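[Automated response] Your request has been received and processed.

Submitted sequence:
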Amino acid sequence: MGWVSPARFHTQPSQFAPATALTCSRRSLTSRLRLDEIRQRCNCSNRRMGDASGELDVFDAGRCAGGYALGLAVGRRFAGAIRSRMRQDLVLREQLLPFASTAAARPLLAALQASNSERYPRYWDELLGTADGSGVPLLHVILVNFRKEIQPFIPKAGGDDGRKEEGEPDGDCSDVLVVSDSTAIAAHNEDGNVALLGHTYLVRATLPDGLSFTAYTYAGELPSCAFGFNSNGVAFTLDSVPPVNDEIAAGAIARNFVSRDLLEAKDLEDAMHRICSPSVSVGHSYNLMDVRGRRIVNVETASGNRFAVHEAGAAPFFHANMYRHLQVKQVQDENSMSREKRAAQCSVDSKETALSLLGDTADDKYPIYMTGPTLHTLCTVLVDLDDKTMTIYRGNPKNADITLVLPML
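Generated structure:
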């Protein structure tokens, strides 16, 4: 079957059928079931939890029989938010979609689909279900989930090498980790593009084997490219890192699929294996938590199966959006360097001081707590390994305005 042009994705949202290397079989019998059968196999409930204004929805998808069923349920529940995000996301509209219509994009998209769908067929089925459930063109869902793996290859205006020039990376997220005799916490600012404001939600799901997870999710994306935990006592937060283009492997495993896989980790060792074994395209920084074992480790990864591990201790460990301990050629991000410099000036030895740091706005140009115009702190999360809770805050965390307190065990 030949390559299907991007124009067709707008009229046939569930038919992503590019050529040869980009075959898109549904892989799952659930894709051929009637919608009422899907609903029966995925016992879902729609619930709004948290604050009275409903700023953060929690959807309990119940026990789902397969990836497509879970994606379909999430897509149906958050169809409005997913469609809204796709309309407002300028990265999608002005960068990803135009590039996807070019001949240069075809082999890259083909390779990304092949490598990720073959290694993670259930998670690929989730993408298909999310597109079908929300009524959004499948191409849009694929592009936002692969955005970090695609953007480095988008030619920049005036460039002559066919690849995007090195530029200022996204200032995505800040973390502070502390494990001492009295405190064991990970505090995290979830920072993102303005297009994500109002386009995030929590997904809870139970797998056929009984494992359950809770994940903060960007509309239209796999759970979770942000933070989450599961019933095995494994939790995580994430920070982007900026390898230069030469450090990126085209068409390899995508970050969103790795973090989705983390939600099914059996323990800390298994979580590290799930991070370090795939041959990834773009590196990432993972803050892994063993709730039962009271341990936190930061794992930085890069293409070529490179990784480095730092175990958190009594000295606060702050991570923004540059590699700290893995030796990788990276973009010198002034935003991250400014946040790291400010964090080094602050003392963190408790939950309160950690939240104060993440709410810091002393640097007018590059504050740790972001309020625009492009990057915003969407929420702040505090993982307390002693209380075994994950607490989500709205607004500046200095104000301690709690949206949800989630027991992790």
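Summary generated for your ticket: The radius of gyration is 20 Å. The longest strand covers residues 184-193.
If you did not submit this request, please reply to this message.
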